[in-house]
Amino acid sequence: MCAEQNPRLNRRRFLTGAGALGVGVVGWAACGGGNDDEPGQTTLDRTIAQDTAGNLVYAPGEPYVVRTDVAQAQAGRETRRRSLVAFHHLSDFRILDEESPLRSEWSDLCDPPPNTTAFRPQETLSVQAAEAVIAAANSIRTSPVTSREVDFAFHTGNAIDNAQFNELRWFLDLMDGQPVYPDAGAIGYQGVQIESPAAAYGDLLQTAQRPFTPVGLKYPWYAVAGNRDILAQGNFAPAENANRFAIGAQKVLGLGPDALAEACSNSETLLGPGSSATIFNDPDTLIRGVGSDGNRRLLSLPEWMAEHFATGEFPGPAGHGLMPEGIDAAQAYYLVDSGGVHFIVLNTVNPGGYASGSIGSAQFVWLEEQLIARSSRYADAAG
Predict the structure, then answer these.
(1) How far apart are CA 18 and CA 25, in angstroms?
(2) 3-state secondary structure of 330
(3) Which DSSP string do the residues of 41-75 spell out, in sequence order?
(4) Positive or negative CA dihedral for 200, 206, 211, 216?
(5) Cys-Cys with 158: which of 92, 197, 256, 373 at CB 3.0–4.6 Å?
(6) Cα–Cα distance measured from residue 157 to residue 160, given in angstroms and rounded to the nearest whole number
(7) How far apart are CA 44 and CA 46, in angstroms?
(8) What are the backbone angles phi and psi of residue 192, rounded to the nearest 5°?
(9) Rounded CA gap, 132 and 24, in Å?
(10) pLDDT digits over 58-75, tens only?
(11) What is the number of other CB atoms lying within 10 angstroms of the CB of residue 352?
């Protein structure tokens, strides 16, 4: 949970509590996750809540709720239940390069901020946190209701945070169980945090940069595009000026009052044509030198799709649902049929930018064709 999501939980309080949590996550990743022989726990068993001091603590589980809004519950249903398919739903890992020059932590000074995720105190641990989620999914092998074995998994978008190549490789290598090197640019931490989130763990920021070999997901999995997978900062279509920021050796830590006012009123100012020269030449701009890294380059949608074919044979499938013939046309939508259940995967990322989403006309026609082909009855536009 981020500090912004609870007004009672300020950033300093979160950082104090997140230090111990973060060390546990790093330790989990370094040791290769949990014990495969231990059954996994779900929210049926326990949940995570906040105590009165704002600390994250374990809380009681949440039982199943029988829905009666569609039909009345019938007696004896416990003996008649069956699973058509069982899958893990993963989403929004938002793995990020927290040292990237393209990050815009300074925008937190805007009133109001253009978004609530310019800086998150726990972001140094995004790779390790995702590894812990994968290990937890591996430990839950069957449906807790019918005991059907898990068939596959979906990751439904925003696997990464800033549309960068290195972030995508970290995600794919996590899922494949290949060695992950969370550091980028120069060796060692070069982010905006000047000290560890918790005094008891003074080397946390540096420890988070260490390479490790993850457990990898044990199930075939399918990918879905999210706005942060395709758009810089989740809002801007990749452009040359933004790419220069990303792979460069200068990180903007703060803007002068005039530049800040302009950037806060128009969030595209910083990434617009010619803006970098204006900002870097402003004597009030606060800049730190960082290690440049070509692997921070921004990816187009076809490049993002193609990278999903540069993965291991296991757990598969090749392309993770994306079709090779759709790469050049940027058709990141497809169909998965499993056990008589049809999963229609759409790409709702708006190519013009921002997170509101859109579906192009070609994709809309394709969607309608799939629904008609798999429906015994349907209503057309005239009802």
Answers:
(1) 10
(2) coil
(3) --TTTEEEEE-TTS-EEEEE--------SSSPPPT
(4) positive
(5) 92
(6) 8
(7) 6
(8) -90, -15
(9) 10
(10) 999 999 888 899 899 999
(11) 10
